[in-house]
Design brief:
about 325 residues; mainly alpha; about 60% helix
Length: about 325
């Protein structure tokens, strides 16, 4: 009994890369990618609901570690719930965030598989590098946000006085912590923007280093505006970390410029309004033979007339 082996056709990824997919096929591909990503997020949301309680306890740790948060009657850390379904809705919100984090490898791959065929090889390589660096930077920002939250709450609760009882509302507190984590995590992605400007050739390392005064001022102003606590600890910590990451990114930019040979161009050390020197040494030319007026000049050879062109009756040009 003979079996006929059918040759496997090109995949949608290969067809999208060589531009052979039609518009309808691109839309179908996007629909399939979104469906798989949504299914992964739904499964992650199920695990997130299961982990919502421990995550909420972890987010409450900066406040519960303070002596002012302990209830003198029960000896436990307690929050205030203003609505009947506030904690239930809060668990759903935490479960969604945890589900997005758990399913991140799947929905990020689906997104990458849809846009990668339209990128060049070097653009894909840069995307791999930036994606690999983005996750640790965001995690570092989240850890710093926990430190800032602890110091900020300690400062704010100490200045309230002993005659004031502090009871934090649970949904507002969790929103405060998650917003701070998101804010610090996104701020830590700024060095990737600096590296992107250098890798694509928009700004050189020397130019980035010349902007360090402006960068430091912007970092401290940004930290003062976006940090939700009025204490100086959060603002200073965020600004110093951003400055350190900026100078580290400039150092990587110097290595990238050295690897690509930037700065050794012909006009690299010349300003825009400066005239470039002409390094040109002409060879001496000997004088030609003198021609007298009585020297006979040879007549040029006659040029034959061109052959007539046959024109058709309908040739109007």
């Amino acid at each position: 009994m003979a079996f006929a082996l059918r040759k496997r056709g090109p995949s949608n990824f290969e067809r999208a890369a060589d531009g052979s997919m039609t518009l309808i096929e691109h839309i179908r591909e996007l629909r399939n990618r979104l469906f798989k990503a949504s299914l992964a997020i739904l499964v992650g949301f199920g695990f997130g609901i299961w982990l919502a309680g421990p995550v909420r306890i972890l987010l409450s740790k900066p406040y519960c570690d303070l002596p002012a948060s302990i209830d003198p009657v029960s000896g436990k850390c307690k929050f205030v719930q203003l609505g009947v379904a506030d904690v239930f809705l809060l668990n759903l919100k935490i479960g969604l965030w945890v589900g997005l984090i758990i399913a991140a490898p799947i929905w990020l791959y689906q997104l990458w598989a849809f846009i990668a065929p339209g990128l060049h090889r070097h653009e894909r390589r840069y995307a791999y590098i930036f994606t690999t660096l983005a996750a640790p930077l965001f995690a570092a920002g989240a850890v710093l946000a926990f430190f800032v939250t602890t110091k900020g709450l300690e400062f704010l609760l100490d200045i309230s006085g002993d005659d004031i009882a502090t009871n934090l509302e649970v949904t507002r507190y969790i929103s405060f912590v998650t917003n701070l984590i998101l804010l610090f995590g996104v701020a830590f992605e700024f060095p990737l923007l600096v590296l992107m400007l250098n890798f694509v050739g928009i700004a050189s390392a020397k130019r980035l280093l010349s902007w360090w005064r402006i960068a430091v001022f912007v970092f401290f102003a940004f930290s003062a505006v976006v940090t939700p606590t009025p204490d100086p600890f959060g603002m200073t910590a965020l600004a110093i970390c951003l400055c350190a990451l900026y100078f580290a990114a400039v150092g990587v930019a110097f290595l990238n410029d050295k690897r690509k040979g930037r700065g050794r161009e012909v006009y690299a050390g010349i300003d825009d309004d400066e005239v470039s020197p002409l390094e040109f040494d002409p060879e001496p030319v000997e004088a030609g033979q003198r021609v007298d007026a009585t020297t006979p000049v040879e007549a040029p050879e006659p040029v034959a007339a061109p052959a007539p062109i046959d024109r058709r009756y309908d040739d109007m040009t």
